[in-house]
Design goal:
about 0% strand
């Protein structure tokens, strides 16, 4: 009967180290859980920013194309022939002695 008493004394030092290991594992698990939540939130923000960046890139491309079109139009407006052609087309302007014919749109 004395034998079990010595076994419990031998288990005492291991019991403390097991507690320390368990505390370390709980702390490690808590840290990993916290890091996972932070990473998850950052990934969601990164996805949102990425979508916003791609949308802005598309908008920038469209704006650059529109700007190039406007520059071309300004360049063409410096030509008197183009201005005359535009006036004749949009405002149905005719030169003296010309007859304007309307064609029905189908």
């Amino acid at each position: 009967m004395r034998q079990p008493a010595t076994d419990t004394k031998l288990e005492q030092p291991h019991k403390g180290s097991r507690r320390r290991v368990r505390l370390l594992l709980i702390t490690l698990f808590g840290f990993l859980a916290w890091a996972g939540v932070i990473a998850w939130n950052q990934q969601a923000r990164l996805d949102a920013k990425s979508a916003q960046a791609s949308e802005l890139d598309t908008k920038l491309t469209e704006t650059k194309k529109l700007n190039a079109d406007y520059k071309k139009e300004v360049e063409r407006l410096n030509d008197p022939e183009y201005i005359l052609q535009k006036i004749r087309k949009e405002y149905h302007y005719t030169k003296p002695g010309e007859t304007l014919f309307y064609t029905p749109k189908s």
